[in-house]
Amino acid sequence: MKNFLSAIISITILLGLIGCEDPDYPDSLWDPNQEVNSDPVISQVVPANMTGYTPAASGTQTYSGVGEITLIGENFSDQISDNLVFFNSTKGEILDATTTDLTVLVPNIEGDSIQVKVSTLGAYLYSNTIAPFKLMPVYGEIGGFIDADDINAVACDTAENVFASVKKDIFSIAPDSTDISSDYASFSASGATAMRFGPGGYLYFVQTFAMFRIGPAGASDPTWLSLFPRNLILKDLDFDQYGHLYTSGSTGDIYRVDTDTKTATLEATLDSVKVAGLKVFQNDLYLAGKYFGSDSSAIQEGVWKLPIAADGTLGAEELVLDWFSYTGKTFENITGITFAADGKLFLSANGGSALTVMTTDGILQPFYQLVLSTPINKIVWGTGDFLYANYGNLGAKRLLKINMGEPGAPYYGRD
Question: Cis omega (within 30 of 0) on the bond before 307?
């Protein structure tokens, strides 16, 4: 009985305390009249409307750091900032939002069992989870090179065999192989600074102020083709659709080489420009380079083009791109140049964005910025959708195979 009375007294005191109102006690955060949004629902994942240079995706997989997907469902917010899309615990970048669609750039993570879910402001719970979702790498290393391998140049033949100049050797890597397939050629001098396949399966390359070529079967002694002034350090070479071979380098002088007579003709000069890369596209020779003169009003770094006549002569130069005005930095220099089949211009660089694309209407933007690092030194497009590049600093380089999601423009000597 005593215990029963004690319990009654305790309950009475507790109820009295609860009933007392403290005038200084803060208002409750709970608003019973607040409207709660319905929880988001994902019903489907589809590839986004691709930009034209993104590798193909499916509803269950895409490429990490570059792929775009659209989540179709309901109860999303049409304000981008009110939605969060998670890939496991990593957020993607929402590019566009409606109440039924979210377009998302996926994060730079990889895995074959990623869980995708959405959180929307005003809803209590996450959406349902879409899994497994696969995020694949958009590039990989090939050749099995190590830090001590100084890769100077890269080329690709019609069969998609990739060739890398490493010190005094040229190695080949077979299609779909990650390791060196053969020691294609070796020579006594230092490595090539640029290589390009020409008619008949010959591999042409430049080295300081000389040009050489190697027969289709490879060789221990490359054949000397032509010599140039000793103050000219050759940086790149390319064929046009008429079979003419062009090369240029540190002085801005542009030479046309007759591969039969082994003679070189000075065709034009980019005044006080160190040419870093060149590429023939359609009927023009494009050159990328940096100005080394004293005229502060001159274009400090850029891309120029010269029209090509059927006899190989070159017309007047025309500025295509003022690179320095775009970057605003003297240490983000162009190292290579190539084109997609539809005319987009791609540039590699030693700083800033590893690859930059200029669309056919002149818009410049970084390419694969989340996944590629600088410096990239030479680039060459294969026969399909893959771009090959040597990445890294002196003494620590790698050979990369990059899925561009579209084919490159023709390499006339090769294709």
Answer: no
The CATH topology of domain 41-136 is Immunoglobulin-like (2.60.40)
Please tell me the distance from the alpha carbon of residue 400 to that of residue 403, in angstroms, as a whole number. Answer: 10
pLDDT over 80 at 275, yes or no: yes
Tokens of 84: 């969060």
Residue linked to tokens 């390009």: 196
Structure tokens at 265: 């003709």
Q: Are 134 and 116 in contact (CB under 8 A)?
A: no
Residue 168 reports pLDDT greater than 70: yes
What's the first-to-final CA gap in the chain, in angstroms? 104
Question: Tens of pLDDT along 74-99?
Answer: 999 999 999 999 999 999 999 999 99
Residue 339 pLDDT exceeds 90? yes
139-403 — its CATH code? Answer: 2.120.10.30
Residue with tokens 């771009």: 387
Mind listing the pLDDT tens digit for each residue in 303-315?
A: 999 999 999 999 9
How many angstroms separate the CA atoms of 159 and 41, rounded? 47
- pLDDT digit string, tens, across residues 149-167: 889 999 999 999 999 999 8
Q: What is the 3-state secondary structure (H, E, C) of the chain?
A: CHHHHHHHHHHHHHHHHHHCCCCCCCCCCCCCCCCCECCCEEEEEEECCCCCCCCCCECCEEECCCCEEEEEEECCCCCHHHEEEEECCEECEEEEECCCEEEEECCCCCEEEEEEEEEECCECCCCCCEEEEEEECCEEEEECCCCCCCEEEEEECCCCCEEEEECCEEEEECCCCCECCEEEEECCCCCCCEEEECHHHCEEEEECCEEEEECCCCECCCEEEEECCCCCCEEEEEECCCCCEEEEECCCEEEEEECCCCEEEEEEECCCEEEEEEEEECCEEEEEEEECCCCCCCCCEEEEEEEECCCCCECCCEEEEEHHHHHCCCCCCEEEEEEECCCCEEEEECCCCCEEEECCCCCEEEECCCCCCCCEEEEEECCCCEEEEEEEECCEEEEEEEECCCCECCCCCCC
Note whether 197 and 380 are within 8 A (CB). Answer: no
Question: What is the value of pTM for the model shown?
Answer: 0.87
Question: Domain extents for the chain?
Answer: 41-136, 139-403
Would residue 297 be called left, alpha or beta, if left means φ above 0 and alpha means ψ between -120 and 50 degrees? alpha
